[in-house]
Amino acid sequence: GGLAVRRACYGVLRFIMESGAKGCEIVVAGKLRGQRANSMKFVDGLMIHSGDPCNDYINVATRHVLLRQGVLGIKVKIMLPWDPKGKLGPKKPLPDNVSVNEPKEEILPIAPTSDIKSKPEVSVPVVPVVPVDG
C-alpha cells in the first residue's frame, strides 16, 4: 500500500501554505477507495474564483495519475501573494485592497481674513456726435 489520499493532500497543502502562498485548493477525483468514484476537496487560505485578477493571482495545474483501478485526477490551484517588486507574485494589488495614506499636515489660519474686492468699473464706449445738416 501507499500513502492515504487524505494524508498526502493535507501534507502537500501544508507545504504550499508554508512556502508563502496566500491560498491553496486541491481537488482529487476518481476511485479513491472502492469501485465508486468521488472527489475530495482540500482548501486552505484565501482563494478568488472570478474576475480578471484570477489571471494574475492564480496558478492552476491538472495531472492524471494512472492506477490499477483507474485514473485519478488531481487539480491544484495556488493563490500567489501580492508582491510590489513582482518576483514572488503579481505587481498589481487586488482591486478590493484598500491602502490608507497618512493625512497631510494642514495649516490652519489664525484669524479669519476677508478680501474686499471693489467692483470693476465698466467703461462705456463714447460715440462721437456728428451734427446732422438739414
From TrEMBL:
Keyword Ribonucleoprotein: yes
Keywords annotated in UniProt: Ribonucleoprotein, Ribosomal protein
GO biological process, one term: translation
Ribosomal protein is among the record's keywords: yes
Domain Small ribosomal subunit protein uS3 C-terminal: 2-78
Pfam assignment, any one: Ribosomal_S3_C
One GO MF term attached to the UniProt entry: structural constituent of ribosome
GO CC aspect terms: cytosolic small ribosomal subunit; nucleus
Gene3D superfamilies for the chain: Ribosomal protein S3, C-terminal domain (3.30.1140.32)
Annotated family: Belongs to the universal ribosomal protein uS3 family.
Name the UniProt record assigns to this protein: 40S ribosomal protein S3
Primary gene name: rps3_1
